TrEMBL record:
<keyword id="KW-0804">Transcription</keyword>
<dbReference type="InterPro" id="IPR036388">
    <property type="entry name" value="WH-like_DNA-bd_sf"/>
</dbReference>
<dbReference type="Pfam" id="PF03466">
    <property type="entry name" value="LysR_substrate"/>
</dbReference>
<feature type="domain" description="HTH lysR-type">
    <location>
        <begin position="5"/>
        <end position="62"/>
    </location>
</feature>
<protein>
    <submittedName>
        <fullName>LysR family transcriptional regulator</fullName>
    </submittedName>
</protein>
<dbReference type="InterPro" id="IPR050176">
    <property type="entry name" value="LTTR"/>
</dbReference>
<dbReference type="InterPro" id="IPR036390">
    <property type="entry name" value="WH_DNA-bd_sf"/>
</dbReference>
<comment type="similarity">
    <text>Belongs to the LysR transcriptional regulatory family.</text>
</comment>
<keyword id="KW-0805">Transcription regulation</keyword>
<keyword id="KW-0238">DNA-binding</keyword>
<dbReference type="GO" id="GO:0003677">
    <property type="term" value="F:DNA binding"/>
</dbReference>
<dbReference type="InterPro" id="IPR005119">
    <property type="entry name" value="LysR_subst-bd"/>
</dbReference>
<dbReference type="GO" id="GO:0003700">
    <property type="term" value="F:DNA-binding transcription factor activity"/>
</dbReference>
<dbReference type="InterPro" id="IPR000847">
    <property type="entry name" value="LysR_HTH_N"/>
</dbReference>
<dbReference type="Pfam" id="PF00126">
    <property type="entry name" value="HTH_1"/>
</dbReference>
């Protein structure tokens, strides 16, 4: 006898994997945490498999969960494609979104995935750049929505959250212990001057070991334990970790995550995307 997988449970399972936890996934899905947990439990019972490793603070997939994830993405993708092609869709066109590279993860992939389901005929162009350039592009009308990292919000924007900067280094690395402290930053990073000033106030000598226009170069250098960097808390790049320095490095300032959305576009598309972004940050 054929058995069917619960599509809603599959979608919750993928969301938990992408979000790194039940709480964030629940906020993004507009469900309660207990509802998402129940859906995952039903999926595990249906398959008679444990899909999530719940022994650590951050939820991880088991080997069975990793195997299911690929199938789940394909099933949901086909499901969404069928609905998109077989039902009339009112809205078409393109929306341009600008996000600083250091806050693309973890929220933006979830947002774009949900938006693509709601507006399958709207093309999304994602531009990753630094805040000053994104503000200028928004002023010129080159982008419809931007996120920024700023000390204060501009008159046409709204602050979604305020998060601390944290020190990051290679996993298990020791570069943070060395003096002068070796730093790695992009030329256009708005945080670097504040970090340097904080080190100067703390009397910690430093040297800019890596300067680049590429965030990938900086991330590779940090993950290789050649230098340290700073990131917005909760948006750490892969292959690095927050440095548990025990006060050996100075505390850093907070930064606002601000949203700017154009009010010139017709229809609900821009507003719907902006609301998905708000939901993603409320769930974080």
């Amino acid at each position: 006898m054929a058995r069917n997988l619960d599509m809603t449970a599959l979608r919750s399972f993928v969301a938990v994997s992408d979000a790194g936890g039940v709480t964030r996934a629940a906020g993004f899905l507009n469900l309660t945490q207990s509802a998402v947990s129940m859906q995952i439990k039903r999926l595990e019972e249906a398959l008679d498999l444990q899909l999530l490793d719940r022994t650590e603070r951050k939820v991880k997939l088991t080997a069975s969960g990793e195997q299911l994830l690929g199938y789940a993405r394909r099933i949901l993708s086909l499901n969404d494609e069928v609905y998109a092609r077989m039902t009339a869709q009112e809205y078409e066109g393109e929306v341009v979104v600008g996000v600083p590279h250091d806050i693309v993860y973890p929220a933006i992939p979830l947002v774009l995935n949900r938006f693509a389901r709601d507006f399958p005929r709207v093309k999304v162009q994602l531009i990753s750049s630094y805040t000053m350039r994104l503000r200028e592009m928004f002023r010129r009308g080159d982008v419809d929505i931007i996120l920024t990292t700023e000390d204060r919000c501009g008159p046409t924007g709204e602050t979604l959250t305020e998060l601390p900067l944290v020190w990051v280094g290679a996993i298990g690395g020791t570069a943070w212990r060395q003096r002068p402290l070796r730093l790695a930053y992009e030329h256009t990073c708005i945080f670097r001057q504040g970090v340097q000033a904080a080190l100067d106030r703390a009397g910690i000598p430093w040297v800019m070991t890596v300067e680049s226009d590429s965030s990938r170069t900086v991330e590779a250098s940090v993950s290789a334990d050649l230098a340290v960097h700073t990131s917005v808390d909760g948006a750490l790049p892969p292959y690095v970790e927050r440095i548990q320095h025990g006060g050996a490095l100075p505390d850093l300032k907070t930064t606002q995550i601000n949203l700017y959305a154009s009010d010139l576009a017709d229809g609900p598309v821009i507003g719907a995307l902006a609301e998905l972004i708000r939901q993603a940050y409320r769930a974080s």
